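Incident log, structure service

09:12 report received: a user says their structure output differs between two submissions of the same chain.
09:20 pulled the input from the user's history:
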Amino acid sequence: MLKNITLSADEALIREARRQAALKNTTLNALFREWLEQLVAQDEAARQDAVRQYEELMEQLGPRFVRKYTREEMNERR
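09:34 re-ran on a clean worker, output below:
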């Protein structure tokens, strides 16, 4: 479902943006939707990259202890 939003910008900027949209046989509204989709996609790609880097780091670090400790050993006070 599409939802309308209201934006404000300099009149000359809007005029030029509409002119450029017309040159591309599209509308200013369509150009804005395309820009918004790209913005969200870039953010999602950055998030996915961060998750991938974290998972790679965890895999590289691997288990720190080879030996498994018993419950008593883990709770032992020194």
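09:41 both user submissions now match this output. Likely a transient worker issue. Closing.
09:42 reviewer note: Residues 12-62 form one domain. The helical segments are 11-23, 28-61, 71-75.
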